[in-house]
Design a protein that fits this description.
The chain is mainly α and 34 residues long. The chain has one domain. The chain has 1 helix and no strands. The protein has one helix at 2-33. The chain starts with a helix and ends with a helix. The model has no long low-confidence stretch (mean pLDDT 82).
């Protein structure tokens, strides 16, 4: 049970970290074009 909660939390942290990364990459591409 604890193992399941840990994997869930790890995936949740991954989701949180993925959003700013995607946003930064998006603005980086925008700055290249404009």
């Amino acid at each position: 049970m604890r193992d399941y909660a840990w994997s869930l939390r790890k995936r949740f942290q991954g989701e949180i970290l993925a959003v700013p990364g995607r946003t930064i990459a998006f603005f980086f591409l925008l700055s290249l074009f404009f």
